[in-house]
Amino acid sequence: MFIPSTDHFDFGFSIKYYGDIPYSRYNKNTMDVFLPISGAPTGIIFSFHGGGFFAGDKTQDYSTTNEQNIIIDYLNNGIAFVTVNYRLIHTILDREGAKRCLDDGKAAVQFVIDNASFFNIDITKIALTGTSAGAGISLYVGFDDTLNIAGVACMETQSTYDLVRWEQIFSEFNIDIVDWTVETNTELSVLTFYGIKNLWELYTPQVQQYRQSIDMLDLMTVNAPEVYLRSAGQPAGYPDDLNKINHHPFHGRAVYQRALLLGVPTQLYAPELAIDTTEETKIEFLTRITT
Questions:
Q1: Residue 242 CB partners (closer than 8 Å, separation 6+)
Q2: Alpha helices per DSSP H over the chain
């Protein structure tokens, strides 16, 4: 079906590498697949890059020696590793908004599941990981019970992409999302995120339905995978810009609290909130889930 390539960084041992495999009809939708040599099906980790859905590339996940060494360690432990490109949002004219990025992540995982025999994958040992937007994709895809994901590790995640629900997440600050957006001059980002023309469309039935469809807190069920969260990149005070509100530790707290309510095993490291329930590192978590 696909031909292995030798065009990759040096591993020091034999692997199978498939670069730029298309997983759907869109040109952007490609993945790089690193497979250990194994006589039995292996677990697999999908990594989704960050970039706010406006930027980024799958090569970010192996652009440094440290990142390459992490992948090498996974392969040495008999774990496959995949980096994924997904369609980005370019302008306000992209009426699909961020949901197409999220659904591309789901399509990538489904593609490998559908071709598990070719890739020699154990579909009961699938883990997802990412930072920021990549973390959000991981939660969105991971909380689709039909995919039977085993674990999700999220760094600096958003808790939900129903931005109106952020008023609840940040209730301590009495934030009105429309007023906050205007005050911080981030209207264009919100409009583009949803593919809408004005902020009041947020409350139309069509956009309310859209918001609900990408609300990861609502998508989480009692059957959700184990979750590992790190929310340590921003202070816990009032978020007065887009970066602070996107990566605020309240997001990690919201996911953690929802998981506790549902009985889903979850670990959270949020030092600004004096919360640390972690029992292992992210790498240890992902290794355990996939072996």
A1: 184, 186, 189
A2: 65-76, 99-114, 116-119, 133-142, 166-169, 177-183, 187-194, 205-213, 216-219, 242-246, 249-262, 282-289
Contact 196, 208 (CB under 8 A): no
CA atoms within 13 A on the CB side of 57: 5
**Rounded distance between C-alpha atoms, residue 84 and residue 291, angstroms:** 21
Q: What is the pTM of this model?
A: 0.95
Residue 251 in contact with residue 169, Cβ under 8 Å? Answer: yes
**Fold annotation for 15-160+217-289:** Rossmann fold (3.40.50)
Are 150 and 127 in contact by the 8 Å Cβ rule? The answer is yes
What DSSP line would sit under 218-285, residue for residue? Answer: HH--TTPPEEEEE--SS-SS---SHHHHHT-HHHHHHHHHHHHHHT--EEEEEGGGTEE--SS-HHHH
Domain ranges of the chain: 15-160+217-289
Cβ count within 10 A of residue 46: 27
Q: What is the pLDDT along the chain (291 residues), one digit of tens a residue?
A: 666 666 666 777 789 999 999 999 999 999 999 999 999 999 999 999 999 999 999 999 998 999 999 999 999 999 999 999 999 997 666 678 999 999 999 999 999 999 999 999 999 999 999 999 999 999 999 999 999 999 999 999 999 999 999 999 999 999 999 999 999 999 999 999 999 999 999 999 999 999 999 999 999 999 999 999 999 989 999 999 999 999 999 999 999 999 999 999 999 999 999 999 999 999 999 999 999
